[in-house]
Fold:
Amino acid sequence: DDQDLRAFIDGSLVPSTAAAIRRIRRRYAELGRDPAADLAPAHRALSPSDFGLHNALRGDDGRLRFIDFEYFGWDDPVKLVSDTAIHPGSDLPEASADRLIERLSRAFEAGDDAFAIRRDVLYPVFGAIWCLIVLNAYLPESRSRRALAALGGDLTVRLAGQLDKARRLHQTICQRDPDLAPR
Structure:
């Protein structure tokens, strides 16, 4: 219900996101960098914004083929790595997500000395964004869209499921970064 949603947002999501933002500002200040500055073009990568295993098909040869990208453009590869590991539709086991982050990070760190720093401080923010995306089901316009799409089912059950999914995602982010766990 809305009280549970408010308790999650106010008691967990907002405090951990605020802590993550404070850390971003502190870390960037230590490095003498501006967190609002554009990333140098040499450090950008072509990135499908909707990249993840939820948009992959395994071919007869066993290879994965990625499909269905609503956006594709230049972006910070930290977003690509983060989104791939934490997208709610991928359901990657933690060990697999860790391995994926490690391997992709190695590839991007070779040409970008600040990649690991950005990854560590931005990952929780991307996680918070995904929590909010999952919670879009609570927005009136989302409810109307879903009703028009005739998804059916009990709205209360569907909303409780989305809140549970957001809580689990948030818990995963906080387990990776215990400094963000609400006290």
